[in-house]
Amino acid sequence: MQNVSGSPAGSTLYAPSGKWALVTGASSGLGVEFAELLAARKVNLVLAARRREPMERLASELRRKHGVEIHVEPVDLSAPGAAGRLKENLDAKALRIDLLVNNAGFGLHGDFLDTPFARTAEMIQLNVTALTELSYVFGRDMASRGSGEMLLVASLLAFQPVPTYATYAATKSYVLSFGEALHDELRSRGVVVTTLCPGHTETGFDAAADARVSPMLRRLTMKPRPVAEAGLSALARAKPSVIAGLLNKIVAFTNRFTTRSMQRASMRKVMAP
């Protein structure tokens, strides 16, 4: 059995040589890791994020190292309608996307009422609305061709309510539920959808969220490369979802044996600096 890219079932990493992947949030963190892993397997790339300069540097390095084609697309996906405009821009350049890595997103740390609502709305727009619109506009093309892959990035926080990350965790619960449902809806149309749930990872997330890392959370922290590898490996095997890291899998599994109130109390302790 093969996945729709032609990779053998059970292969450890997505490897569709010569195809095009769109990686959002490609200027830092997991986005850079996804781009590097895919370029190493001769996948051409569209890099999309707000900041052009880091993407141009990454593109130059990957072209030199791997000889792939790379198109840089500066875009603020937190702006309403930006996802649709990105699709129109790529259509105008005749760039057909075979793999969508829906990675762009950010978090906000702090009590809900102490966070400016404009920032909360911006986060919801990016984490939920833009991700959904990107999945729709590129997913329709994939389904019409009968082939394609989408990797959605959720979070370990998707599995329980999280005081001080109330809205962020809720957006990631949406991504997990949405992605797993799409997996079932689209597989009969030749499109593989996998949702990746990272735990705490060494990226720029904490600085962007204005959060300090607790000692307990620090012990669960993963490097970004194995997280990205876990997502692409699960996609290659057509898995509906994957939690990166053994300890994170254990954390999610234990939720089955605890009450919601216990989960909230536990997460408040874990997140306390």
TrEMBL record:
Family designation: Belongs to the short-chain dehydrogenases/reductases (SDR) family.
Sorted UniProt keywords: Oxidoreductase
SUPFAM superfamilies named among the record's database cross-references: NAD(P)-binding Rossmann-fold domains
Source organism: Bosea vestrisii
E.C. numbers: 1.-.-.-
Broad enzyme group: oxidoreductase
PROSITE patterns xref list: ADH_SHORT
Name listed for the protein in its UniProt record: SDR family NAD(P)-dependent oxidoreductase
Entry keyword annotation includes Nuclease: no
InterPro entries listed in its UniProt record: NAD(P)-bd_dom_sf, Sc_DH/Rdtase_CS, SDR_fam
Domain of life where this protein originates: Bacteria
GO MF term set: oxidoreductase activity
